[in-house]
Design a protein that fits this description.
With 364 residues, this protein is mainly alpha-helical. The chain is built from twelve helices and two strands. The termini are far apart. 30% of the residues are buried.
Amino acid sequence: MTVDGWGRRGVALGARLDRTQRRHRGLGFVIAVLYKFADDQGGYLAALITFYAFLSLFPLLLLLTTGLGFVLHGHHHLQEQLVSSALGQFPIIGDQLRDDVQALKGSGTAVAVGVVGAIFGSLGVARAIGNALDTVWAVPRRSRPNPFFARLRSLSLIGLLGLGLIMTTVLSTVTTGASAFGRLAAGLQVLAVVIAILGNTGLILVAFTVLTARSVRVMEVLPGAVFAAAGWQAVQILGGYYIAHQLRGSTQVYGLFGLVLGLMTWLYFLAVMIVIAMEINAVWVGRLFPRALLTPFLDQVDLTDSDRRAYTSYAQAEQFKSYQRVDVTFTDQPGGGRRPQDASTPQDGIVRPDVGRPGDADGT
């Protein structure tokens, strides 16, 4: 068969697969989430979250141990239990971190300065998550918060981490003591996992609502929050299994390099899970499915209405000023006549941004 023949068969096969995924809503939704993850450069968003999470981890742990030293003064055992519960979220490197993180000590002024510095340093991961949310929701740049207000809003993340710490401490106590109940031990451990997923879902719901400039309802972000909470728990379980069967003693061999590499890998997996959860919400709320199957590979593709809505939102997200005007047009078919697609038409489902005075030089 000639090259042209193989090319025609490939195009025909692609067309059949495209029709199949458009007919099946579940398959079309999954493909749309993956495509939007690629459109938003989700891997880079996850890498940014990973970087700032790595920089924020030690200031947060420092802030935790210092705060527990003041609040639970004289209850050393309870302090250790809370810190161990927090580090238990990192099964690959938790044991090594437990020996290295110490509370701030010294004069009151030095401790105050250290606490303020730890809080400021820990806000980076909240800003990275907020930036990812605004990107995924295609929030226009003019509507995103300024750097000062964004950092104030990010303070809520510290409160969420505190609630999560209390929850994980209680659940770890239940899991540890489950063996004393004999036959009920397995049931109690499963119940602890279910409660952990429900608790993490609530915390992620608050984070997805607070850390974005877009006004969202609880039901709009619930699917992604459930996915992220379940994914977090799955990564925890798989990480514990992997370290127990594959990485036993490896940290002693590789030392500090193994600690840093394991931590970065762990954080990146979690960040990817969180970004995918954001994309699930955006695709579901915006009805951005099904997408044309070949859009990542070919330019001449018959776009779906979901493709048009997605590409329109990407363009409008670049609006820097309220008097800046962004118009998006498409053609009916590849190579066909031009048909204007007003960004404010109901079929696009996107409100047209405010425009400036007629004749403004930068209003186009």
